[in-house]
Amino acid sequence: MVAAVIAAPTVLAGCTGIGGDDGGVTFRFANSPTALSLVRIADELGYWKDAGVKPEYVGPATSVPAVQLLDQNRVDIATGMFSNDIDGKVKGFKFTAIASSMLDLPDQPHMAYFTKAGSPITKTNLKAIEGKTVGLGPGKNSCTDLVIKRYLKKNGVDLNKVKFLELKPELIAPAIERGEVDLGVFHPPLVGVLLSKPDKFKQVFTSFDDWGPLGGQAPFVASNTWLQKHPDAAREFVGIIGKTANWANAHPKESAEIAGKTTGYPVEQTTNWHYAPNALLDKASLALWWDLVKDTGTPLPGSDKLKPEDIATNAFNPYATSADLLDHQDENTTVLPGFRNKGVFKTPLVDIATAEK
């Protein structure tokens, strides 16, 4: 589902993220063979080759939130759903969200929901899911858990009459074919794989139908320790992520082919996400997670006292004009022609003595 939250038993192993053999700074990043990642797309495009910061892939990780891996000093940078970031702050984990990730478009959704071809479950007949089983990825308060429940609830479905079964993402489609699951939750690249098989699967609706264009944010988060040691490398990292996001949005077909190549799925069947331009973070797409968890999840005590600015900053983004979050992604709809600052901004979230004033 996301690069840092992977249902696999292997323990993380890798380098320390202090420096590469060529003198550059490395960052430990949890790698899954079947997960989409702007870090890996940037690798395929050669963006890390001559950079002063480079990924050191470790893992795969156990199925724990990205921020927990950061707190345990097992990775330096990760990506995961913002609901877990909120929980991590409540628990006192030392990390900061530094770059945005995916948004939603009608034809490039964060998630899509499929049934078996010929199923009576449709967008206008969601009550038909009552008494049946929904297959979703692992993780309480995750996007797969929260969005489907809120959407069904909005459409009059009694959630107490639906069985929600947590499965590894790659196991949900076979379960639908066998009749063990009636509706499944899917992310790219599997969305494209299922769309290519209309004789077997039917797309019923997407996450865009619930949360619109702002949904899906799983920002890149970094440990404060790494950020304090390597602020300039962090700025270069965010710049490369923004450059990669802009390229992927401008080349959806080619980025989907890279998604297939890096995940092992047939390139002609895969789909990719749409990303926030310039990797800039905003308040609105992060704030929606509080409502999501409150509506259908389990908020941790104290989470209501937090706000996006307590977790995320644009201080390391070379496209930013200040450390402040944008109010909304409506302010960030075009690709910026170049960097708009000369160094890291000061931020109360990370103590960096060399930050730009």
Largest sheet strand order: 8-7-9-6-10
Element pattern in H and E? EHEHEHEEEEHEHEHEHEHHHEH
Multimeric state:
single chain
Q: Describe the biggest sheet?
A: 5 strands, mixed
Q: Write the CATH homologous superfamily of the largest domain.
A: Periplasmic binding protein-like II
User: Per CATH, which architecture of the largest domain?
Assistant: 3-Layer(aba) Sandwich
Radius of gyration: 20 Å
Helix content: 25-40%
Tell me the span between the first and last alpha carbons. 38 Å
Query: How many DSSP-defined strands?
Result: 12
Number of domains: 2
- CATH top level assignment of the largest domain: Alpha Beta
Shape: globular
- What is the percentage of strand-forming residues? 5-15%
Stretches where pLDDT is under 50 for at least 5 consecutive residues are 1-21
- By DSSP (H or I, 4+ residues per run), the number of helices equals 11
CATH fold type of the largest domain: D-Maltodextrin-Binding Protein, domain 2
Organism: Gordonia amarae NBRC 15530
Family: Belongs to the bacterial solute-binding protein SsuA/TauA family.
Subcellular location: Periplasm
Keywords: Signal
